[in-house]
UniProtKB/TrEMBL annotation:
One Pfam family, short name: NHase_alpha
InterPro entries recorded: CN_Hdrase_a/SCN_Hdrase_g_sf, CN_Hdrtase_a/SCN_Hdrlase_g, CN_Hdrtase_asu/SCN_Hdrlase_gsu, Nitrile_hydratase_asu
Record bears the keyword Chaperone: no
Protein name listed in UniProt: nitrile hydratase
Organism: Methylocella silvestris (strain DSM 15510 / CIP 108128 / LMG 27833 / NCIMB 13906 / BL2)
Chain sites annotated for binding Fe(3+): C110, C113, S114, C115
Length: 205
């Protein structure tokens, strides 16, 4: 990733300290209990996250009919799969998938803040929220993608999709070459959150 979106090495530590202080204050005021935060974090670590998105993408790779339905009506297509209750809620409202292809590459940003489809991508990374990334990706997506190591050919159209509370986008990346005969589980292992954001390609087999 470009140094443009780098952060001081102690940023995690400082932010964790702030979060702990806020948590202690909310507990003291009776707004939450001592177990509330751990329960929410555990939910997004075990039930909602990029492992769900990887399964969705893998199914789209092996089933063209599902892929068409996913792009046409994302929540309805996702509901066909065996996922935990809550895929359509908790930051998953109005999810919408777009598919990469030979002639188009999709990039997901949020110019306002950090709207993100948590149930399929997990929690957003720091750089996704960064004002520099948000503004530059909207103005010069090809240059930003190049800094991420994704060199999109000049004849391939780049589409930038702006997530919001109304629509939370994610990308179905192109299936890597040489993956014929792989199971859905094996294919899912090739899908990263970055690929579903459009700032990376699916891993090679």
């Amino acid at each position: 990733m470009s140094d443009q979106f780098g952060y001081p090495p102690d940023r995690e530590k400082r932010n964790a300290a702030r979060a702990k202080a806020l948590q202690a204050l909310l507990i003291e005021k009776g707004v939450i209990t001592g177990d509330t935060v751990e329960t929410v974090l555990g939910y997004f670590e075990t039930k909602m996250g990029p492992f769900n998105g990887a399964k969705v993408v893998a199914r789209a790779w092996v089933d063209s009919g599902f892929k068409d339905r996913l792009v046409a009506d994302t929540p309805a297509a996702i509901a066909e799969l065996d996922f935990p209750t809550g895929m359509a809620g908790a930051e998953g409202e109005h999810m919408k998938a777009v598919a990469n292809g030979p002639d188009v590459h999709n990039l997901i940003i949020c110019t306002l803040c950090s709207c993100y489809p948590w149930p399929v991508l997990g929690l957003p990374p720091y750089w996704y929220k960064d004002p520099t990334f948000r503004s530059r990706a909207a103005r010069e997506p090809r240059a930003v993608l190049s800094e991420f190591g994704v060199n999109v050919p000049p004849d391939v159209l780049i589409k930038v999709w702006d997530s919001s509370a109304q629509i939370r986008w994610f990308v179905v990346p192109e299936r890597p070459a040489g993956t014929e005969g792989m199971s859905e589980e094996q294919l899912a292992a090739l899908v990263t959150p970055e690929a579903m954001m459009g700032v990376a390609l699916a891993k090679a087999a």
